[in-house]
Amino acid sequence: MTLQALPEDAGPYDVVWATHALYALPPDELDQAAERLVAALRPGGLGVVAQATSRSHYLTFYDAYRTGVRPATPYTSAEQVRDALDRAGALVREQRITYTTGTADRAVAQGFLQRCAFDDTVDLEQMEAAEVLGDYLAGCRGPDGAYSFQHEVALLWL
Hints:
The chain is an alpha+beta fold. It has one domain (about 5-155): Vaccinia Virus protein VP39 (Rossmann fold), CATH 3.40.50.150. About 35% of the residues lie in helices and about 25% in strands. The chain contains 6 helices and 4 strands. It has a 4-stranded mixed sheet. Helix 1 (about 30-40) packs across helix 3. The radius of gyration is 18 Å and the shape is elongated. The two termini are about 20 Å apart.
């Protein structure tokens, strides 16, 4: 069941959370999903959403992938989720976490990037050669050829 299909009378729950789970939520369904999430949380309960921000590798990579490899709906950012939760009447506190992942192993980099795109049909060489995406990936490589990806995640506390 999707969050937006959660029955209006579901809950109340002591805890509701979504950890990197709302990226593919269609933008026109974001407000409805946020309303369902907020309504399902009992007063005084704990709600947490962990979502990559628009500055994170995950969303930046996917935008370059969509432009250079395959058109698709953009991922939903933490900022969009926060705004929808605000519109749904939630009192939202935000904490940002930054971290770096990386590897010099091309097979590991390929697997990671394929998971970021939910597409295992495009190999690393094709990604590196793709318009827009290739430039983005080149900017993620150090002088030694190793990849380094910068992440920023918002923890949204309800």
